[in-house]
Amino acid sequence: MTTAQKVAIVTGASQGIGAALVTAYRKLGYRVVAVSRSIGESDDPEVFAIQADLSRPGSGGEVVEQALARFGRIDTLVNNAGIFVAKPFTEYTDEDYDAVTGINLRGFFDVSRGAVAAMVEQGGGHVVTVSTTLVDHALAQVPSALASLTKGGLNAVTKALAIEYAARDIRVNAVSLGIIRTPMHAPETHEFLAGLHPIGRLGEIDEVVDAILYLENNRFVTGEILHVDGGQSAGH
User: Fold this and answer.
1) Are 194 and 149 in contact (CB under 8 A)?
2) Could you give the count of Cα atoms lying within 13 Å of 19 in the half-sphere of its Cβ?
3) pLDDT band at 183 (very low <50, low <70, confident <90, very high)
4) Which Pfam families has this protein been placed in (predicted)?
5) What pLDDT sits at residue 236?
6) Pairing mode, strands 31-36 and 125-132
């Protein structure tokens, strides 16, 4: 087995943005480790599907170990897995807190820690995390304190890690999304959700993929929180 071919790990890879990223990285010539709690085996031998619950302590580390055992290296990690629960703050339950922090924070921490360690050993790499523009521009129509609590932390750690590992040729970036047309949002909500963006429509999955590939390909960009949000973060 050659280790020259680049390898990307994509979490939350079973549908929507994650599934599209698997396809996009394969088109770039990467081998891909596709991670989700519910994902079937791929017909493509260069796609290694792993069923994993990243909220479980140690699960992210196990994903990294399996990726290295299968492909021998990790060049890119896309932290796409996440949970969004929109509720008034006082209606959140302990179960909501555990679920959201489990995936959004624990999941990021475990898999990123292992992936960055591998990147240090091989002399470089790239971490991209999917965040939300609600961190920068809260909306009364979408109460989402747990999203801000967790994704705000991911924005901050993106910059911290970018600086910590810049001299080791490891870049760390994020995309801060508006509302994207994915299976997460029922069609009957699309008109309302589109109106939350100054541009007047939902974002499309391919627009998110394009943004992540820009970050992938531009090696002078690190510590960036790239807004892909239809102008939402700029104001209303």
Assistant:
1) no
2) 10
3) confident
4) adh_short_C2
5) 78
6) unpaired
Query: What six digits make up the tokens of 43?
Result: 């017909």
- Report the distance separating Cα 168 and Cα 122, nearest Å: 10
- The whole-model pTM stands at 0.95
Contact by Cβ (8 Å): 74, 9: yes
pLDDT tens profile 80-115:
999 999 999 999 999 999 999 999 999 999 999 999
Beta strand residue intervals within the chain, DSSP E: 7-11, 31-36, 47-51, 76-79, 125-132, 170-177, 225-228
First to last CA, the chain: 53
CATH level 2 (architecture), domain 7-234: 3-Layer(aba) Sandwich (3.40)
Whether residue 224 contacts residue 174, with contact meaning beta carbons closer than 8 Å, is answered with yes
Task: Take residue 119 and report the two structure tokens written for it.
Answer: 């990147």
Two tokens, residue 13 = 């890879």
The pLDDT of 179-198, averaged and rounded, is 88
Could you tell me the CA-to-CA distances from 16 to 84, 93, 120, 177, 205 in Å, in that order?
A: 14, 27, 30, 14, 7
Q: Are 165 and 126 in contact (CB under 8 A)?
A: no
